[in-house]
Specification:
CATH superfamily: Response regulator
Distance between the termini: 15 Å
Oligomer: single chain
Shape: globular
Largest sheet: 4 strands, parallel
CATH class: Alpha Beta
Length: about 140
């Protein structure tokens, strides 16, 4: 698809929310591709985030925790911060890009049900916003 829109999901650790959002956007929003990154990337995907994506059939082995410097020079049509810290520390991108904030509570350290809830919230709240912003 030639005019594929690109979105970057930005979080602090890039281990839960941003990875879940990346996977959901890539699987469910036609014509839009997502990447994710962390302002202070943890370097690992939370096991429960991986498990909830596997349960939904959305996990790809290419999903991993990335630092901002690995994606900052990419072209994006939209940057979405999904946690307060990323919103406050969102860097200036080399090229002008629209940035919005849609926050979600961090499920890290909580039981598996919190990850299921986070996935549901991201699917129901974030995806329609991203689609609206990029159409």
């Amino acid at each position: 698809m030639p005019n594929r829109k690109k979105v970057l999901i930005l979080c602090t650790g890039n281990s839960c929310r941003s990875i879940i959002a990346e996977a959901l956007i890539n699987a469910e929003l036609e014509g839009i591709s997502a990447e994710s990154s962390g302002v202070k990337a943890s370097g690992k995907v939370n096991p429960n985030a991986k498990k909830v994506l596997e349960a939904e059939g959305l996990w790809r082995d290419s999903y991993h925790s990335k630092t901002l410097d690995t994606v900052i020079d990419n072209d994006y049509d939209l940057v979405v911060t999904v946690c307060g810290h990323a919103q406050e520390t969102c860097p200036m991108f080399p090229k002008p890009v629209k940035t919005i904030h849609v926050g979600f509570k961090d499920p890290d350290g909580k039981e598996y049900a919190a990850f299921e809830e986070t996935l549901k919230l991201i699917r129901n709240e974030l995806l329609p916003i991203v689609e609206k912003e990029l159409r």
